[in-house]
Design a protein that fits this description.
Elements: H1 4-13, H2 19-56
């Protein structure tokens, strides 16, 4: 996993001066946000999957007579 703190510290210590640098900084921040959202969603999906597996291990009996 990338060291987001290091990347953000670098961006904060080196503010953009030119328009191209501003665009690059914005793109990097958007990419970091997207990665963090993706990681959070993956963790949530793992939790839901684990709960689903736990639920599927329970036996349910039905009397159809």
């Amino acid at each position: 996993m990338p060291d987001y703190e290091e990347i953000l510290s670098f961006l904060a210590a080196n503010p953009p001066q030119l328009e191209a640098e501003r665009e690059l900084h914005a793109s990097l921040l958007e990419l970091i946000a997207k990665c963090l959202r993706s990681a959070a969603m993956a963790a949530e999906d793992d939790e839901v999957l684990a709960e689903g597996i736990a639920q599927s291990r329970k036996l349910h009996w039905m009397d159809l007579n």
